[in-house]
Amino acid sequence: MTKAVETAAICEGRFVMKTLSVTKLLFCASLFVVQASLAAATSTSCRLQNDVTVLVADMHSFLTYLETGEGAEAIWLTKRHAQDAAGLQNRLKQAGHDRLAMRTGALAKQQKKLLFSHEQSGRRTTAMSAREMNITPLLQVMEKENAVLPCAAPMQHEGAGAANFGSGAAQLLESGVLHLFGAAILIGGVVLAAFGWWNQISQRRTRRYGCMLPCTVTDANSLYPAMIVNVSRSGAKLQIARGLDSGHRVELNFLGERAPARVVRCSKDHMMLDFDEMMNTELLDRALFNLKQGPQEEFSLES
Hints:
Blueprint: H1 3-68, H2 74-94, H3 98-121, H4 123-133, H5 135-147, H6 160-174, H7 177-206, E1 209-218, E2 223-231, E3 235-240, E4 249-254, E5 257-267, E6 270-275, H8 281-288
Antiparallel strand pairs: 1-2, 1-4, 2-3, 3-6, 4-5, 5-6
């Protein structure tokens, strides 16, 4: 096995190891996405459970106010729940809790009727209407159905500051930020894997080897003597007395082979070529190693 083949084997081995590392990274990223999705789903259920718990508790307080006249703040709490009921009902439906959503809608209608009665007829008359509606059994059923919502750590009916903080965190989760973040990591892993693969291929394709190899460069009109000072499968750098313009089409002749190429750039005494086709590895071996086994012929750029 020649040194070039050995070098290629080593590169391929490193590429396999890096591919395995990238695969592990992708697996971890996928696992994180799943965990983030589960965490977001659990948080959504916890917030729904908390909102329904608060709704039922405040309705009990409103019924107590109607009967006893104590706790008048229950009026504006019930008004707020009646206004927010549609949103809560929709979120319950989206989470798949249709029965609880239906009962929430029914409770909202009863709340609006009682609030209207309270404004028009006062507390005592509204209390009688509430007894006729028989709302308490509905609240009990809602409490039972709410208790079975999948929430690992149900939130409690806390003070305003803690409730606002919990609500803000839950809104962040429900907005899909975790899903988006997890998807970004997954996409980033795929991009990283693709970049690693392309980087390995690019290194194998463009890795240049130093040499001193006589050659000639021909175009449609002339022939120019030159010296290859480094070479890869995709191109070569030449030492040449006369440079050509970038984009100029030429043919590189060395070791009895011809390589159509394009001038990439040209500076003082040097010219970079890009081959039209990848150089054969056997020819690259000859260019790099076989010449060392025999004497080098004298060569002049001015010849």
